[in-house]
Amino acid sequence: MYKSIFAILLAFAYSTSVWAWPDWVTQHQQDSEYLVGVGVGDSRSAARQSAIADIVTQLSVDYRVEQTQMLTKRQGKADSQFTQVSQLKSLPFTLEGIEELDFFQQDAEFALLLGIKKSQLIKSIQTDLAILHHITSPAGDVERQFIWALKQSETFLLSTKKLSVLTLLAGEQPKIKQRLEQLLTKQKQALQAVSCDVIGNSHYSLIKSALNTALPHSGKTRLWMRPNLKWKFATKGKLALAKARLTLKLMRSRPPFSVLIQHDIEAQAKGSSREVAKAKAIEKLLGQLSAPASVWMFDT
After folding, report:
1. What CATH number corresponds to the domain at position 97?
2. Structure confidence by residue, pLDDT tens digits, 214-263
3. Which stretch of DSSP H or E encloses residue 110?
4. Is residue 297 scored above 90 in pLDDT?
């Protein structure tokens, strides 16, 4: 009799060792005040990053988080396993004021429920977008307008992304949208008025190709972009170090070939040989040139 009761209690205890995540982990959460995100990981820090990624998911139209819950049985013991796979994608602004709303831990697994107040996020984005009403395109020659268009490229790109998020959170924003569309139209006109030819040393083929991709070529006013690459080398133990300085000059294509803008960007890398280090440094330069022109052609 005692053995039978003991066996029943043991079986009950064994079955109750099966644990499950709370509902806020496995079910999508809706909150009128907060934008919430759920994260799961093998540490509290990993869970936090995953929860932030979940919030980013909801603010990005092309972002995916994959969640899977599996029930397995090993040696007669059932085990509920929850996994979350996500890719953190940067937002056009910093998420500030994130609060921890709930926490759960089972053995070495952690789950966090984070939230950020929607009203706070909306106000912050609206403040950022207010800058659009203070930006004006310059009157005058084509060159000035072209330089203005290049200089505002990152601002307009980020503003477009911020407006998409604001619309998602607070609905249509006709005044902000109209102002941004006006500025984008003026930028497009300024860029299309210029044909910018990349000239200089043919050894810079990758850099010239990246610049040709970034610059317009359809306008009547012809300008030149001249890249000039200089190197410094060193060794550290068995490693070769390479530092590249790329000078970019935007110039008039007719005498006296005046320089309109000049800016330097740098990259450094290390490798098993000088050539390997140079190739890595070039890749870093190309990465910089893939950003909007305002990033690599002007001082921030």
Report:
1. 3.10.28.20
2. 999 999 999 999 999 999 999 999 999 999 999 999 999 999 999 999 99
3. strand 109-117
4. yes
pLDDT at 84: 44
C-alpha closest to that of 256 among 224, 228, 298? 224
Q: How many CA atoms lie within 13 A of 40 on its CB side?
A: 19
SS3 of residue 180 by DSSP: helix
Indicate if 243 and 290 belong to the same structural domain: yes
Helices 205-214 and 274-289, axial angle in degrees (round to 10): 10
206 vs 21: which has the higher pLDDT: 206
Place of tokens 């290390």: 270
Q: What is the pLDDT of residues 65-98, one digit of tens each?
A: 444 444 343 444 434 444 444 444 568 888 889 9
39 CB contacts (<8 Å, ≥6 apart)? Answer: 46, 47, 48, 49, 50, 51, 52, 53, 54, 84, 111, 112, 114
Indicate the pairing of strand 221-236 with strand 194-198: parallel
What is the total count of domains within the chain?
3
CA angle 211, 89, 268 (to 5 degrees): 45
pLDDT at residue 37 above 50?
A: yes
- Indicate the DSSP class of residue 108: T
Q: Which residues contact 71 (CB under 8 A, 6 or more apart)?
A: 78, 79, 80, 81
Q: How far does Cα 172 stand from its chain's mean position?
A: 24
Q: Which of 117, 143, 165 is the last residue of a domain?
A: 117
| CATH number of the domain that residue 201 is part of | 3.30.160
138 and 110 co-located in one domain: no
Instruction: Note down the domain range covering 263.
Output: 194-297
Distance CA 59, CA 53 (A): 10
Joined together, the tokens standing for residue 55 give 């919030």
Distance CA 54, CA 88 (A): 8
